[in-house]
Amino acid sequence: MSNRRWVGPRLTLTAFCAIVWAMRAQLIYNPVAGPRDAADDMARVLTYLERQGWEITLRQTFGPGDATTYAHDAAAAGYDMVIAAGGDGTIGEVASGLAHSDCRLGVLPVGTGNVWAHTVGIPVWTPMHRDALLEAAQILIEGRDHRIDLGRVGGRYFVLWAGIGFDAQVTHDIEPHREVRRALGQLSYYVTAVVLAFSLRGTRVSLDIDGETYRHRALMILVTNVPLYGQSFYLAPQAQLDDGWLDLYVFKGGNTLDAFRQFGLLLLGKHLGDPSIETYRVRRVEVHSEKPLPLHLDGDPAGYSPLTIEVAPKALRVVVPPAASLALSGGGSLPVGEPSSLAGRIAAYLRQERRRLFEEGERIREYWERRLGLSRE
Fold this sequence. Notes:
Oligomer: single chain
């Protein structure tokens, strides 16, 4: 029996053409995600969607796993959509609850990295773009459906990537310090990564990839579903979200110098084909290591090796902007206008980092103004 109801003349003409039937949606909000308090923006989004005739239920998370439980319950109850309002980790948790259902995932990005939003073109809040969440809410109405693959580790799923080793250790170390992460945003990850890099050592790993065994001394292993790694790096330019494969990258090496060299290659877009970075296309990989290595899924700590990662083809319905193409159905190439020359890549990266540092500075200043009770003139 359908959970939709006709809403008649209450709808605007735009909303009428966009949805025709009232949507029954659950909004799952993670209040500790991201570098700022988004509660006021959430209220504006709820008002906007309800004015379009949507029936919205709001649920707030209080700890790890809540978003998965809420999303699973919503799908079982026949909701048309679950909206993840949080960071990439929240999106991954909601995806775990919706996997293999017909309930759609919508996203309001309020996290620190917001890589999913950058991948498909959902607007992200910045001090210069304060109406971004309302624009993202409009995409929930006017966007199109697309089925994407997920990665799976045990009973958990990921949308973007699974990381094993160095980057997962950064995630494990920064996770308990939420106040620092909220104040410093992406900068907190950069600082933690630099500190950990100086004590970094490679670990012997054995990878069983679709029945073939490979052995390496690895600093980090990434299994990705998307081209982007973080906001800046096109790790896997040919990755696609719906091709039934995952892309695996093994960063080989034994010490800090190897890590910094590989970072430079990644920054310059010269990592593909380098002998210190092994690449594979996989459907299933078993990871064994001489000592337990930390794991993260979409930026959230998720245990340790040994572990098995496999693809779940087209397991999730998502709502994406009408013009979204990057990583969708063969769109895994650089965006239009992305410079291909070495000098162009460096200049583009520096421009992006300068803009990000300005935005992080604005967030930090606003945070301390709130803490100190200073008015903003």
